[in-house]
Structure formats: C-alpha cells, structure tokens
Amino acid sequence: MKLSSLALSASIVCAGLTGALLAPAALAQDKVQFFPVLSGRTGPVAPNATPWANGHNDYMKLVNVRGGINGVKTLVEECETAYATDRGVECYERLKGKHGGATVFQPLSTGITFALTEKIPTDKIPMITSGYGRSDSADGGIFKWNFPLIGHYWVAGDTVLQHIANKEGGWDKLKGKKIAVGYHDSPFGKELLPIMQERAAMHGFSLQLLPIPAPGVEQKSIWLQVRQQRPDFVVLQTWGVMTPTAIKEAVATGYPREKMFGTWWSGAEPDLKDVGAGAKGYSAVMMQHGAEFNSPVVKEILEKVHAKGQGTGPKEEVGSVLYMRGVVGAMLAVEGVRAAQERFGKGKVITGEQARWGYENLNLTQAKLDALGFKGVMRPVSTSCQDHMGSAWARVHTWDGSKFVWASDWLQADEQIIRPMVKASADKYAGEKKLARRAAADCQS
C-alpha cells in the first residue's frame, strides 16, 4: 500500500495532535492498517474525551512497538468533532476513504452513532461503540455493522441498579423507593431510560426523570426538584462538564453523595477532581475497567511509548479511567483485525468488510487478555453473529475524596431481561427501516 506524503507524519490529525505512530523512514515499505479517530478535544466534553483519544493513540503506538498486527503497522488520523453530530458526520465522510480505507470507526458520541448507523451498511465499515450508541445494536441479526462491544447503556443501568439493590439488602428493599435519574437531554441520556423503567415496573420503585439540557452548566432548577422531592437515590447519565456541575449542585443542596451513582460516562477523574473531598462517597458503575495505573499494559505503555518521548498526552493521565477506556477501545479494534487475519490472511491489510467479520468472531479468552496486558482489568469477550456485545460485566468504584477505589465485586447484567428488550427494539428499528433479519447463510459467510 502506497502512502501519500501526508501520511509521513504517521499520526495525522485534523485538530493538532502530535507524536508519531510510525517511524517516517519505515513508512514507505510498511503496510498500514488505518484507524480513524473522531475526537472531542474541544467543547463541553473535552476534559473527558481528550484522555480517551490519548489512550487510544498510545495503545496503537504500543502495537507498532510490539511489531504491529502480524507485521501490519497501525496508522491513526484524528478529526475533531467537538461532540457535534454534524461535525462527526463530516469527519466520517472525510476519513472513510483515506489511507486505503477506514478499518473501523469509534465515534465516542451517541448522536454521531445514530447518524452513522444509516451510512455504514452502504460503506461497509464497522463501528465500535463500547458503552454508548444504540443499546439494541447488540442484536447482530439486525445491526450487522454495529458493535457495542463489552457493554451498552442497558448494561450500565441494570448493573448500577443491581449495586443499589445489593447495598439495600435485595431487590425487594427497593419497593416504594424513589430513584431520580438526571440525564443528558439527548439520545445519549434517553438511551438509559428503558432499562430503568423496566426495573421500576418489576420491583415497585418510582422514577423521577430529570432531563438536563446540554451542556449542563446550569442545573439549579434540577437540584431544586431533588431538594423538594428528596429521592432515595440519584442516578446520573451525564457527560463532560455536566457531571461535575451536578455533583457541585448536590453538595450545595446537601444531597448525600453516598446516595448518588453514575453510569460509566459519569464517573471519571475529570468529573470529581475539582470537587475533591466534597465528592467523597460518589460511585459509578464501570465498563469492566476503572483506573488501572498498576496494570501490565499501562506499565508497558510508560516504558515503551512515554519513556521514548512518544506519548500522546501527559504522562500523569496514563492509566486514568478514560485513558484506559481509550486503550481498551484500541485493543478491541486491533484484536478484531487480528481475528480477521486468521481468516483472510496473516500479515495482510484488512478491509472494513473483513474487519467486520473479525469483530463478529472475537474470542478474547482470559489468557489472551492477560498476554495483551489486561490481567485484572478485563474479563473474556466472545461475540457471534447474533451477539455483537460479547460480554456484560461491570464493577462499581467509589470516590474516596482523591481517587477511585473498587466498591463492588464483578456484576453481570441480567440478559434474561435485557436480551428481549434488545430484540424488541431491534425488530422495531428493522420495521421502520424495512430491513430483514440476516439469513443463516450470512452468519456463516
């Protein structure tokens, strides 16, 4: 594959990222696998989205230090969306055909995910949406190109409610309680609601729904409602500056942080560091990993990337919650390509369509994850034609005033509840779009 002179910087960014992924001298002969990045380094989510992109890009650099994907080097190019759906679509169109063609997109935005879901079947480019996007896209029978690997919003909602029930002494103890849900007033925030409503109907608790307009820097009226109604618990489905604003308002209102629980986009260091000790007791469910400063993969990134002056962002964020989410996202993207190479040819550059097969046939055993540096960080992931999520594990961590500490054992979302919800929603989508379920032969191709 020939590279243009533009690619000689190796990490090419529409929004000013520095740090090479490939040594320029090696690029002329190296085969490369292109992984576009839809970044959010500006705007209201910048403190949270920036470490994700840094972690993603650092792991891609580590892959190259390790020898690439069976010799194929990774190439990253960023395009800045500022978390705006229209800009995300523009970035997608700009990047999808570059450097031999995009392998996979990870938009880090539910709004962008909804928009791109309409485009990717035609372009034959898969999309990984770990922990966000459409929850019903776990149904590979309808959503052939979408992969909410390792979790979606209904997994987050179910496991955070499991944790609350465990703390109270069982689901029966939630009967008659009131749970307020403060959510980003967007597709992202609303995606949480179906599982909350399902569990409320099952267990007899009531919901106080509190939509928070973006960007969420003004929430006094929201927390006035909390003060008036005094719910037993508050669950946050927030992102960016909205989360620390909510926690600061809880402090001002006197609502106990021990009764507040976030989903996995509402529980990282940027959300709490400015509140500090005032946020002590606040918890959030995590999509398997949390802050993993002592993990083998972090130690390897520090040794082989940052120590060589090739780190994408500041060294002190390496291993933090959202940095690790970027690392995990990059690992999943790479391992799908590795799986595809097993079928289509080791050491070959994989097309988006071939990569899609790889993401549908992931088999990340514990031994494989441990060998990649994720021992103690992740549990096995195994996808199929019908299951595009691959695992439903989570844990809860709690802010101790200066850092997060684990506060639960491993939790697993109840697939007996979630799987029928996913299928019903996917079938509804298929009906609206006049789509047929994939034939059995398609699952074997």
UniProtKB/TrEMBL annotation:
Secretion signal span: 1-28
Lineage: Bacteria, Pseudomonadati, Pseudomonadota, Betaproteobacteria, Burkholderiales
Transmembrane segments: none
Family of the protein in this entry: Belongs to the leucine-binding protein family.
Key words of the record: Signal
Key word ATP-binding present: no
Database matches in Pfam families: Peripla_BP_6 (PF13458)
Species the sequence originates in: Hydrogenophaga atypica
The protein, known as: ABC transporter substrate-binding protein
SUPFAM superfamilies reported for this sequence: Periplasmic binding protein-like I
Residue span(s) of domain Leucine-binding protein: 36-400
